[in-house]
Every structure is written in structure tokens, then in C-alpha cells.
Amino acid sequence: MSAGVLSKITVIDMTEGVAGPYAACLLGDMGANVIKIERAEGDWSRTAGKHIVGNVGSTQFVALNRNKRDIGLDVGTADGLRIVERMVSQSAVLLSNFRAGVMTKLGLGYARCRELRPDIVYCTISGFGQEGAYAQFPASDTVMQAMSGVMNLIGEAEGPPMRTAFPLVDITAANHAVQAILAALYGQLSGQGGKQIDISLIAAAMALMNIAFTDYLAAGRLPQRHGNQNPAHAPAGAYEVADGRYITIAILRESHWKKLCAALNMPALENDSRFCTNALRIENRVQLEEILIPLFKSKPGKWWTATLRAADIISGPVNSFADVIADADLAACLPLIETHLQGMPRMMGNPIRMDGAYATASRPAPARGQHTREVLAELGYALPEVDNFLRTGVAFAAD
Asked: Distance of alpha carbon 131 from its chain centroid, rounded?
């Protein structure tokens, strides 16, 4: 990615966990000067999971906090608040993910920040937004998957609801936050000034299911769990093969169906009256599966992958991370970047490729308070003032 696309933009990152830190991370990938404000207890994400990287924290924290500097502050003190106010006056974006009302209680509500910086882009990420009966409830990715209905759509038809094994809603909300921030910054070019942005996890989760929810609103039809099958197409799903692994296929057009029948060497199947249209294949999915399931189990995955790709059929193996890395051609499609951290050489980077290159981690994820002295000096505080902040607990710095 072209270096420094957002190099003139300073972002204050007052977030913890997943959604907020990842949004700030993506802005940092684009060249923004991201300063993470961290309290003495630290971002709880530093201790998430089992694997800790050096003096930085968990792999989750490392994944979400590259390309940032870290200043340790007690924002609840008068001096700590004044430091943040000075930061706001010199910054383009303020990003937070507290519950509704917390920023105002800290003295950093939107109205106050506009006084400090009239064109501030003020973005909050919360569970349920800033208003209404739900605004004060705590939230997490798992709870959002449940309450939005995401979990109700995942799993086998007769099985229990299931959650995705990764923070789907948090990551989605982060991407929406970045879209909104970039739109607000672009709007400033035409004199639109600052913007107050609020991204709620519940709205981000529902937006993920836009198609299914629109169908419900139009027809009153509740979507059902379909396991590994695509409810809108048939055949389209995962099938076990001879070596115990799985492959996937997706038949989206009638021309795809003809190609599949030819690849399977089953011309009679193409014109079978039960399967000659997608609607009929969905209606008669059980009978179609009775034919396809034993057929796919008759040969190993590599044979099927080669055969289906040769026939130009949308298909692929069901991979683990180890399989992805072992496939050199597939791994070459990914933004695998250097972490600059001992014991963890590579990480997954930003998927945006610009001018032929992905963004790099010019800064590894920081230790708590790693850049406190540096940032305070840039804000114009003299060395004796900085030492006083550190001595009184207004600020803290990494050893």
C-alpha cells in the first residue's frame, strides 16, 4: 500500500478489546498517526488467550494493535484529562468504545471535543448505540451473535444454534467504523466539517444478514439453519471425500450445473426432471444429496479439486490454517507481513492492496505506555512536567 495515505491524520485510540482497536489498526495501516491511550490496568485484550508475545501481550493484542504508539494515562485525573484535551485539539479523529455516557462523564463528550477541535471526527463503537433502553447494557461479540440472530442461522438443521469461532461482529463493526471515518474525512474536503459517528455492534450484526432479513420483512419467512448447505442454491455446500476431508462446490447458474454433470460423467443427471432448474434442485435437495454424497466419497480430495477446477466449476477444499500456509500459491494471495516481534515472525495484515502492495507493520504492537514520554514531549510538555506526571501517577511509561 502507498505509504502515508493518511499521514497527515492523527487518530486518538481510546478503545480496548477487538472492534475499536482493529478499526484504529486499519487506520494506522493506511499511514495515520495512531496514539493509543491506555489505562494502568491495560487493554484487557493483552491477556486474552493462551499465547503471550514478549512483553507486549497476547496474539490477539498483537493482531489488533500494530502501527500504533501507546501512551499510559489516568484520564480520570484533572491533569490526565487536560493532556487528552490537548491531544484532541491537535488530532483529526477520536475513536472510543465505551458504553453510552462514559465519554461525557470523563469530560470528553462530543460537545466538549467540538469546542477543542471544531472539525473533529468523533467515532464511538458501542453495543447498542448511544440512546434507548439498551444503551447501558454491556455487550460482547458472542452476545451480539446471539441477540442479532446470527447464532440462530449457524449449525445443522436439527442441531443447536452455534457461534462463529472468531469475532465476526466485532471485525465487521470495525470495518464499518473505518468506512464512516474515511467518509467523514473526505467530506471535510468539501467543507462539511466534523462528524459524530456511532457504530453499534447490533446494527453491524444485522447488516451482515441483510439478505435474509430483507426476505423476512418481505415474506414473513424466518430463515432456517442449513448446516453446510447454501439455502439459495443447490448443490452448494460441503461434501466429505474419500480421504476423510471435505470439499466445497457452488453451482450458481444453470451453465454451472451442466459443467458439473459433465465433470461427474453423468449426462442423465443434467436432464433429470427433478434437478433441471435451481428451484427444483432446492426442492429436491434430499434426493440430489443421495446421489452426490456417495459419489464425492468415492475419490480423494486432491482428485476432486483437480477435476472440478479443470471443468471450471467453483470449488475448493475445506482448509485448516495449516493447509492454507502449506499451499504456497494460496499463501501468496495473502497479506502476510512481518511483526517485528521476537517469537512471532509473521501476522495477517490489512487485506487492502494498493499500488501493488499491502500495508506493512511499520510499528509492532506496543507495550503498555511504551511511547508515553515521546508523545507527551510532542504535545509540548517539558521534561520536568513529564517527570511530574509520571511521579504522580497521571501518566505511566513502560520500563
From this structure: 24
Q: Which domain holds residue 253?
A: 236-240+246-317
CATH of the domain at 362: 3.40.50.10540
- Could you tell me how far CA 325 lies from the centroid of its own chain? 21
Dump pLDDT digits (tens) for 287-342: 999 999 999 999 999 999 999 999 999 999 999 999 999 999 999 999 988 888 88
Threshold 0.90, pTM exceeds: yes
Parallel, antiparallel or unpaired: strands 121-126 and 93-96: parallel
Residues 4, 357: Cα–Cα separation, whole Å: 13
Query: From start to end of the chain, where are the E strands?
Result: 10-14, 33-38, 52-53, 57-58, 69-73, 93-96, 121-126, 195-200, 236-240, 246-250, 315-317, 336-341, 344-348, 353-354, 357-358, 395-396
Q: Is residue 292 part of a domain?
A: yes
CB atoms within 10 A of CB 112: 15
- Cell 446421489 belongs to 291
End-to-end CA distance of the chain: 33
Backbone angles phi, psi at 394, to 5 degrees: -65, -35
Is the backbone of residue 160 left (phi > 0), alpha (psi -120 to 50) or beta?
beta
Into how many domains does the chain fold?
Answer: 2
